[in-house]
Amino acid sequence: MSRCGARTDVRTTGREARGGPAPRLPSDPGHRPTRRGGLSGSCEKPQQRRRFPRSGDWFGGAIRGIPGVVSRTSHLVAFLSIIASAALVGTGAVVVASSHDASAAEQAVAVRQAEALRRTPDQVVSGAIDTTDRSDAVTFAYAGDSITARPDSWLHVLERDPAVRAVGGYAHSGYRSDQVLREIRPVPTADVLVVELGTNDVNQAVPVGTITANVDALVRKVDAHRVLVVAGPPSDRTTSLWGADRRAGQLVLTRALRADARRHGWAFVDPFTAVRTADGAYEPGTTPDGIHPTAEANLGVAHVMAEAIEATGR
Fold first, then answer.
1. 124-313 topology per CATH
2. Each residue's pLDDT tens digit, 220-272
């Protein structure tokens, strides 16, 4: 059997060159073209016909290793996604900047708050007060802030009152109820515990529920025989560095303290009625700073307090 390794040269007609079928000669229906070199055509493997792709066929399917066709709609979606992402990045930058500005503003407010607290006079009263020692005097303990701790406060006025005697307690200007709760000591021998607290809590926007809870805990800690709760004082201040309306807050505090005292069966007194206006401010001429009573006004406050302490203790 002969090998077909020799190069062949098939004679074709013009029609074959254009891709059409080879014409058959009428005289020889089985005619097959012969290869140059005299080898038989029976060894030739016919070439598979392939059509050159038209321009529209290039993207008809995916090419190995390359994603498939991307439509115009997909292009548009991708483009819009890029635009949206850029917008989000820009917005994020703005948010970060705004957050940074807000943080800086909060820090500035915190600094002013700390400075205000440092400017508060460090007025502290603790323990027994040098009062007239009478065996029939009603003894009391006190828990208070600057309304009680200032040198001209009702507490110091009562040093001259023989009917009542302070045997212990703690008061500190600028302190909240939780701070006084931490510092005060038990005074179980006292006939009455006088609780005058909440002014600084209101200033620092402490919820009234927290204030009354601190008062309740303080009463348990001191363990006096009876309790006298004092109303919040007037205020000419309607703002604070903590964002509180101090005047309105004092009125809310007074109502909450009254309700808490009623719930526990404690006595309640409002010694500021003579110096408070209907809207919670001080009467003209009764305060040096819009927060505390004047020394003269404290004489009237002390008189009411003495009567309330004596009535509660007897």
1. Rossmann fold (3.40.50)
2. 999 999 999 999 999 999 999 999 999 999 999 999 999 999 999 999 999 99
How much is the pTM?
0.67
CA–CA distances in Å: residue 69 to residues 51, 52, 65, 268, 295? 22, 20, 13, 85, 91
CA dihedral 248, 253, 259, 263 (to 10 degrees): 160
Q: Where are the beta strands (DSSP E) in the chain?
A: 124-126, 138-144, 164-172, 192-196, 226-230, 267-269
Domain positions in the chain are 78-119, 124-313
Strands 192-196 and 267-269: unpaired
**Residue reference for tokens 């994603």:** 67
Residue 228 near residue 308, CB atoms below 8 Å: yes
Judging by DSSP bridges, how do beta strands 192-196 and 226-230 pair with one another?
A: parallel
**Single-letter residue type at 232:** G
How far apart are the C-alpha atoms of 268 and 229, rounded to whole Å? Answer: 5
CB 195 within 8 A of CB 143: yes
Extract the tokens encoding 104. Answer: 């800086």
First to last CA, the chain: 141
